[in-house]
Specification:
334 residues, binds flavin-adenine dinucleotide, binds NADP nicotinamide-adenine-dinucleotide phosphate
Length: 334
């Protein structure tokens, strides 16, 4: 028979928000279970240098996430390699179905499922996905040694990917739909100084072109947004870096969402429209979307969940005069 695990706090997601929630909930003695999902460590595992994580002038994204996982484990968070396929928030305890066959029941849930790369939705993009079209330069850049590459987008991800790809490519064309990048100034400066990168302003990707047997990319057709003129660019790889959408499929019919699926939280908290359910990180944040803000929200979610459980009297085995946190008093229940 399939296993059912009960926990006071179920954390869904293993990015900065999930692991930070794991650290705080563990230190509040809530014995949380954290389910990692298909991408253990989250989005930062798809990048190289992270230069804005406080305390590290430079750290590799995957290394930072390994450290966060170790920290959460060290303070007692149970970390499970599973994917939640179904979540029922209609009654407490909440129940979650794992892809492994396990069922989780929880008094409180912290949603930290983050965001996933967006695609343009072109038929030719779909056709060549995995055969020259990618959304992850660190995963696939290596395959394009000495080749020409195209990157689509104008944010931090597109600029970082273009810069990273110059380690392999002979030339990188950055196609952006405007003539101004929204990336950080320091990244734009690096991009402009890089002789291997050529920006193509005011253009959008019209079509990826390539061969059928074997399936492979040969180039792109880019369209000028004002004149409609088509420019053909030879390329073996096309990297789509047009942003990320919140991974809210599990809850979109159960919780209030806005701005294309971001889970709504009460301002200044991580409380969702269902008491006992909290959301943190890129799943709820359509503005900042940074590792450090996600981690901050993970902390808030754990403290919010702890306060809720204390008020419900669900924190068994101890008497609380105040929810745990700064200056909280806890007495052993003997
Ligand atoms: P994510 O990191 O998106 O993690 C989501 C987690 O949820 C994953 O572990 C996933 O497996 C899990 N999950 C999803 N669905 C399920 C499910 N059904 N069941 C179980 N688990 C599930 N930010 C910076 O501050 N500095 C940077 O230098 C920086 N560089 C970046 C480079 C790139 C290429 C990208 C894409 C982003 C970068 N960011 C950077 C943004 C940063 O990565 C995100 O803001 C941050 O990772 C969001 O954290 P999160 O915990 O909300 O979610
Ligand atoms: P983003 O900031 O949302 O930028 C998306 C880019 O793609 C924009 O330039 C946008 O154009 C373009 N775009 C969107 N839809 C498009 C379409 N249909 N066709 C053509 N172009 C399209 O996304 P991101 O760069 O992935 O960054 C996401 C978040 O992660 C941000 O908060 C970012 O700061 C963070 N991040 C941080 C770092 C870092 O700190 N070093 C690195 C990576 C990511 P417009 O500009 O015209 O809208």
């Amino acid at each position: 028979m399939a296993e059912t695990r009960h926990t006071k706090v179920l954390i869904i997601g293993s990015g900065p928000a999930g692991y930070t929630a794991g650290v705080y909930a563990s230190r509040a003695l809530l014995n949380p279970i954290l389910v990692q999902g298909i991408e253990p460590g989250g989005q930062l595992t798809t990048t190289t240098e992270v230069e804005n994580w406080p305390g590290d002038t430079e750290v590799q994204g995957p290394d930072l996430m390994v450290r966060m996982e170790s920290h959460a484990r060290a303070v007692g968070c149970e970390i499970v390699g599973d994917i939640i396929t179904d979540l029922d928030l209609s009654r407490r305890p909440f129940t979650a179905q794992g892809d492994s066959g396990a069922t989780y029941s929880a008094d409180a849930v912290i949603l930290a499922t983050g965001a996933r790369a967006k695609w343009l939705g072109l038929p030719s993009e779909e056709k060549f996905k995995g055969f020259g079209v990618s959304a992850c330069a660190t995963c696939d850049g290596f395959f394009y040694r000495g080749q020409e590459i195209v990157v689509i987008g104008g944010g931090n991800t597109a600029v970082e990917e273009a810069l990273f790809l110059t380690n392999f490519a002979s030339k990188v064309t950055l196609i952006h739909r405007r003539d101004e990048l929204r990336a950080e100034k320091i990244l734009i400066e690096r991009l402009m100084k890089n002789p291997k990168i050529e920006p193509l302003w005011n253009h959008v990707l019209e079509e990826v072109v390539g061969t059928d047997a074997p399936l492979g990319v040969e180039g792109v057709r880019a369209r000028h947004v004002d004149t409609g003129k088509i420019t053909e660019i030879p390329a073996k790889g096309v990297f789509i870096a047009i942003g990320h959408a919140p991974a809210s499929e599990l809850v979109k019919d159960q919780l209030e969402t806005h701005m294309g699926g971001y889970v709504v939280v009460e301002p200044g908290t991580t409380r969702t429209s269902i008491p006992g359910v909290y959301a943190a990180g890129d799943l709820t944040d359509h503005v900042y979307r940074q590792a450090v803000t996600s981690a901050g929200m993970g902390c808030m979610a754990a403290l919010d969940a702890e306060k809720f459980l204390a008020e419900q009297g669900d924190v068994s085995g101890r008497v609380m005069t105040e929810p745990l946190g700064y200056g909280a008093e806890v007495e052993a229940d003997t």
